[in-house]
Amino acid sequence: MNTEKENELVGSKIWLERPAGAPETLSGIPIKESYGPEDIKDLDYNKDIGAPGRYPFTRGLHSNMYRGKIWGRRVWLGHGTCEHVNEEARWALQHGWGAIGAGPDLCTNLNLDSDHPLAIGYSGVQGCVCDTLRDVDEMFDTIDLSSMPVVFHHVDMCALPIFAAYLVMAQGRGYDISKLRGSLINDPISNSFAWCSTGIPNTPLSLQMKIAMDIVEYCIENVPLWHTPVICAYDISQQAVNAIQELGLAISEAKEYIRAALRRGIELEKFTDRMMIAFSTGMDFFESIAKYRAARRMWARMMCEEFGIENPKACRLFTTTHTDGSSLTVQQPANNIVRVTLETLAAVLGGAQNIDPCTYDEAICIPSRGSALIASNTSQIIAYETGVVNTSDPLGGSYYIEYLTNEMEKRAREYHETVEGMGGIIAAIESGWAEAETRKAKIESQKEVEEGKRRIVGVNELVVPKEEELPMPIETENWLQDTSPEEWLEPLKKFKAERNIESLKVALRDLSEVAKRGDNLMPATMQAMKADATQAEVLGIIREANGLPYDPFQMIQNPFW
Amino acid sequence: MTIPEKKIRILVAKPGIDIHDRAALVLSQAFRDAGMEAIYTGLYQSPEMIVSAAIQEDVDGIAVSLLDGQPLYIFAEIMKELKKREAESIFVVGGGCIEDRFKPQLERMGISGLYGPGTPLKVIVDHVIDMAKGTSR
Question: What is the interface pTM, i.e. ipTM, of the complex?
Answer without folding.
Answer: 0.83
